[in-house]
Each structure stands twice: as structure tokens, then as C-alpha cells.
């Protein structure tokens, strides 16, 4: 097998830049299906503490309250019980980073040291968020708050009070995120299953011919099905009604999983899957999917509490972890961006740190795209900020209202494209600095624009300098895992040893689950490695064969070995 290192550097750079057309980078997608949930949650979670602080005459503390309020952006895809278990950890992580930043600000006036600490915090945030798969908005919001606090004037004795304000706002955010459970207690899991059904319907209505388009559709369906199973696994029903509800959702996911089989398109089946998805998104009863013959009365899902939430976090920090090069990139890029901003005489170097942290994606190609989106969105956002700044300075209520409107629009536009979200994110971030101190608009605009350009440029540069050479090894490991999972699946279908003539429902569930996860992780590993500019040639034919065989085995398992369900 050849190595990408044998290719001239000029060719590597051409290969990196070629798949990045501006039209594709700036294309607007449809709105996300639940974009309004984080948007409304963060608006309410911000409004409540801001108005309380306004009544107390301490609106200057709003920046500390934002450490807790912005946690309302997280965990909207989780069932409510899992959300209750996870959000306190998000708040704790947010306040931990904020606390380190505040202590640093109180102990030193050196901007050099403050930038270094902010960069290290950004790297830790990135690694832990990726390991925990916390989902959007990921590490960026955590880093934004911590980096900002690292440059606030601070006294050591005031830090406990400031963190208490953030903790109180975090409690409000938790209540806001749990409040919809009173109206629709099973909403998140119904949405997750609906997504799997919609993706499966698209696959069944498409062309049966193998090719890149069908391969991408099959992967999207496998990922949606796998996400639905993970969501249902987080449920811990303790009543007969809860068990029955989860069983009905499991049957629906099985039908979506069966769509992964190759063969001709089936418009009738696609229409049925879409109808079930529409019923799930409404508030009516669960749609009924006929169980497969021979199903038994146990759940195919692991027992409640299976798995340990700390294990992936500890694994991400061990030597050899594929996340460590990503963390190194973030640390180097954020530090270089902040120091370059200082050298340019900018008064807000933490903006460059945050920009560099936001630019870093799974690989160099995606980071390049994100940098372009960040720069263009920020430029438009600065124009908008200049227009609305006079309105925000009409009084404290006007400032709060302007920030809330920008927050809502940020979440709405972010689902369409990252650059569109930055059009509203930029003025929101600048307006939040008005809570603590008012500065001339020209200074804010100039500093923000320079920091954005510096942060984006050095973020991409650090991706080129700090190469992720473990990405290729991750593909090899993913191929080996997929091969093992496929062999287990073949043994199960053939009823060979060690399963015997009648494999148990739990064993069938385990094999199917491991095969599905192996295929999803294989595609993720390939996507990451294919965007790295200094990487050996990828085994594309082996990957294509493994994916095709794996998806056919999943479909065969679904047809020949019906999984068990809850009573």
C-alpha cells in the first residue's frame, strides 16, 4: 500500500483545496426539525436571571449568569430522564472551566498567561466533549464563556459569588430544559425514531443501483437507526405502560433497520414509513407496527444503566487516544491565535482564541470550510451589530431584549449553515460585553474583525502543522472491528457455534447492535481520515466492501432472526 507522503506537497494541497467550492460551503440547508427547542430554551434561561439581576441593580453580573444560562443549549436530543442525569454535568463542566479562568484572571495581569490558560481550557473542552459525544453546540460555547472570563477584571474573593450566580442560572436552565416533559414526556425518543423512519423512507424510495449516492443514503439511515437505538437504550421504564411504549418504538426502529437491505425501491413501504414518522411527530398515540413472527417478550436493548459514562472520558485521555491530536491542535491553534492578536495590539485576544476553537473540526478539510464560514458570517454580523448597537443602548431592557433576539435567531440560522448562524452570533457576543463595560463601537468592530481573521487563519495553519496521523490507524481498527462483527453476524445467521441452533434473543440483539455501531464508526473514521492532508492512501475498496456486506448482513439478521421486544 502506497503512502500519501509519496505525493508531492503541491499535489496534496491541491487535493485538499479542490473539494471545497464556495458554493457548497455557503449553501443553506433546511431548518433542523427541533431548532426551536434550544432556541426557546436559551432565551428563557437567559431572560430569567437577566431580569432578576436587573431588578437587583446588578446587571454587570449577567456575564457570569450566562455561564449557566447557555447550558440550556445542550441535551435536547436526550430523553428527559437522561437529560436530568446529563445536564448537571454540563453545568459542572461549564463552571469548572469558568472557575479556572476567573482564578487565572485574579492571580495574574499577564495577557500571555491568560491566553495560554484559555487555550488549554479550550483543548480540554474539545477532548471531553468529543469523548462524551455531547452533541451541538459542543465545546465552543464552553470555551466562549471561559475565555471571556479569563480576561475580566477579577478579585479572588469575588469568585465564589460569581460562580454562585452561574450555578443559579444553570439551575434555571435545567428546569427550562425539563419543562416540556410536562406536555410531551416521550417527545425526544419519538423524534429520534421518526428521524430513523424518515431516513429509511428516503432510502427505500431512491434508486436501487449501488453507487456513491446510495452508499451515502445507506450510511445516513444506519446512523439514524443507530442513534434511535441509543436513545431508546437511555429509557428506563418502570411501569407496564412504559415497557409497552418502548416496545412499540423498538418495532418501528426495526422496520427502519430492515430498509438497509439492498434491492429495488418500494414506494409503498416508503410511504408507510413516512406515515409512521408523521404520527410520531404528532401528539397522538404511537403508530402500530406489526411484530415479526416468532418475537419473544424481552427487550432487545441492554439493561438499564448498562455502560459507564466515565469510561469514554477516561479513554479519551489515555496515551494513544485518537482525540489527543485534536486536543493538541486546539491548544496550539488557540494559543497562537491569542498571542498573534496580542502582538497586533488587539484589546480582546480571547476572541481570537474562541475563533480558533470554533474552527477546529474533525479534519483539516472541514476546518478549512468552517474557517471560511466563520469569517464571512462574522463580517456580515459586524454590519448587523453596527446597525443595532444604538437600539441596544437605549437602556438595560433594550440591551437584554436585543441579546435575546440575537440568541433566538442564532439558533434558528445555525441549523441552516454555520455562516448564517454567525451573522447573529457575532452581534450577540459583542452585546454581551456591554453588560460589564461599554466601549466605542469602532473599537469593538475593529477588534472583532481582526481577531476573527487571525483566529481563523492560525486555526487552519495549526491543522496543517499538527497532523493527525492516527486517523489512518483509526480506519484500520474500524475495519478490523467491522470484520469481527460481520463474522459474528454470519455465524448467527448460519446458527453455527458458539450460538447453536437457536440463538437467544439477547445474543441476537448484541450482535446486531455491535455490527451497526461498527459500520457507523467505520464511516466516521473514513470521513475524518479522508480530510487530512498528510495521510497515507486509504483502503477505499476494502471500506466499500465492508460497508456493503455489513448492511446486507444487518438486513438479513432483521429478516431471519427477529429481535425480542418488551412485554
TrEMBL record:
What domain of life does the UniProt record list for this protein's source? Bacteria
Recorded coiled-coil stretches: 475-532
One of this protein's Pfam families, by short name? FUSC_2
Q: Which residues cross the membrane?
A: 39-56, 62-80, 87-105, 111-128, 140-157, 163-183, 375-391, 419-437, 449-467
UniProt KW keywords: Cell membrane, Coiled coil, Membrane, Transmembrane, Transmembrane helix
Cellular localisation: Cell membrane
Membrane topology per the entry is: Multi-pass membrane protein
Q: Which residues form the Integral membrane bound transporter domain?
A: 336-461
The family assignment reads: Belongs to the YccS/YhfK family.
The family database entries (PANTHER family) matched by this protein are listed as: MULTIDRUG RESISTANCE PROTEIN MDTO, P-HYDROXYBENZOIC ACID EFFLUX PUMP SUBUNIT-RELATED
Protein name listed in UniProt: FUSC family protein
Organism source for this protein? Microtetraspora malaysiensis
Lineage runs: Bacteria, Bacillati, Actinomycetota, Actinomycetes, Streptosporangiales
Amino acid at each position: 500500500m502506497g503512502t500519501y507522503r509519496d505525493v508531492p506537497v503541491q499535489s496534496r494541497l491541491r487535493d485538499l483545496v479542490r473539494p471545497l467550492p464556495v458554493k457548497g460551503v455557503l449553501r443553506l440547508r433546511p431548518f433542523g426539525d427541533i431548532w426551536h427547542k434550544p432556541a426557546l430554551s436559551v432565551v428563557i434561561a437567559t431572560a430569567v436571571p437577566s431580569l432578576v439581576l436587573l431588578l437587583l441593580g446588578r446587571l454587570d453580573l449577567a456575564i457570569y449568569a450566562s455561564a449557566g444560562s447557555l447550558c440550556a443549549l445542550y441535551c435536547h436530543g436526550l430523553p428527559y430522564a437522561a437529560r436530568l442525569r446529563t445536564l448537571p454535568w454540563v453545568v459542572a463542566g461549564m463552571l469548572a472551566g469558568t472557575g479556572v479562568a476567573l482564578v487565572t484572571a485574579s492571580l495574574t495581569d499577564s495577557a500571555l498567561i491568560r491566553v495560554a490558560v484559555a487555550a488549554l481550557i479550550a483543548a480540554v473542552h474539545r477532548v471531553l466533549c468529543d469523548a462524551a459525544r455531547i452533541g451541538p453546540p459542543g465545546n465552543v460555547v464552553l470555551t466562549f464563556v471561559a475565555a471571556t472570563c479569563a480576561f475580566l477584571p477579577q478579585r479572588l474573593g469575588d469568585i465564589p459569588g460569581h460562580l454562585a450566580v452561574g450555578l443559579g442560572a444553570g439551575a434555571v436552565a435545567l428546569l427550562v430544559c425539563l419543562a416540556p416533559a410536562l406536555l410531551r414526556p416521550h417527545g425526544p425518543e419519538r423524534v429520534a425514531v421518526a428521524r430513523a423512519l424518515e431516513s429509511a423512507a428516503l432510502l427505500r424510495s431512491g434508486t436501487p443501483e449501488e453507487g456513491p449516492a446510495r452508499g451515502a443514503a445507506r450510511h445516513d439511515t444506519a446512523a439514524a437507526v443507530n442513534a434511535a437505538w441509543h436513545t431508546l437504550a437511555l429509557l428506563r421504564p418502570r411501569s407496564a405502560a412504559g415497557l409497552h411504549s418502548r416496545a412499540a418504538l423498538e418495532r418501528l426502529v426495526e422496520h427502519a433497520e430492515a430498509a438497509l437491505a439492498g434491492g429495488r425501491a418500494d414506494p409503498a413501504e416508503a410511504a408507510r414509513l413516512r406515515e409512521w414518522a408523521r404520527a410520531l411527530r404528532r401528539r397522538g398515540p404511537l403508530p402500530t407496527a406489526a411484530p415479526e413472527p416468532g418475537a419473544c417478550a424481552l427487550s432487545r436493548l441492554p439493561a438499564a444503566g448498562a455502560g459507564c459514562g466515565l469510561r469514554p472520558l477516561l479513554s479519551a485521555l489515555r496515551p494513544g487516544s485518537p482525540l489527543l491530536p485534536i486536543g493538541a491542535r486546539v491548544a496550539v491553534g488557540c494559543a497562537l491565535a491569542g498571542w498573534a492578536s496580542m502582538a497586533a495590539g488587539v484589546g480582546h485576544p480571547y476572541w481570537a482564541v474562541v475563533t480558533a476553537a470554533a474552527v477546529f473540526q474533525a479534519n483539516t478539510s472541514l476546518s478549512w470550510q468552517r474557517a471560511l464560514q466563520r469569517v464571512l458570517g462574522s463580517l456580515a454580523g459586524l454590519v448587523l451589530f453596527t446597525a443595532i448597537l444604538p437600539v441596544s443602548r437605549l437602556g438595560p431592557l433594550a440591551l437584554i431584549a436585543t441579546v435575546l433576539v440575537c440568541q433566538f435567531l442564532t439558533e434558528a440560522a445555525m441549523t441552516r449553515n454555520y455562516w448564517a448562524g454567525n451573522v447573529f452570533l457575532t452581534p450577540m457576543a459583542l452585546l454581551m460585553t456591554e453588560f460589564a463595560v461599554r466601549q466605542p463601537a469602532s473599537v469593538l468592530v475593529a477588534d472583532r474583525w481582526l481577531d476573527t481573521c487571525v483566529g481563523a487563519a492560525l486555526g487552519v495553519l495549526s491543522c496543517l502543522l499538527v497532523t493527525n496521523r492516527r486517523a489512518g490507524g483509526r480506519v484500520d481498527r474500524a475495519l478490523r472491528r467491522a470484520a469481527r462483527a460481520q463474522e459474528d453476524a454470519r455465524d448467527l445467521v448460519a446458527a453455527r457455534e458458539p450460538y447453536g441452533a437457536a440463538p437467544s434473543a439477547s445474543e441476537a440483539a448484541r450482535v446486531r447492535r455491535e455490527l451497526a455501531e461498527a459500520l457507523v464508526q467505520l464511516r466516521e473514521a473514513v470521513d475524518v481520515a479522508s480530510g487530512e492532508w498528510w495521510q497515507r492512501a486509504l483502503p477505499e475498496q476494502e471500506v466499500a466492501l465492508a460497508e456493503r456486506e455489513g448492511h446486507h448482513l444487518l438486513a438479513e439478521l432483521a429478516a431471519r432472526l427477529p429481535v425480542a421486544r418488551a412485554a
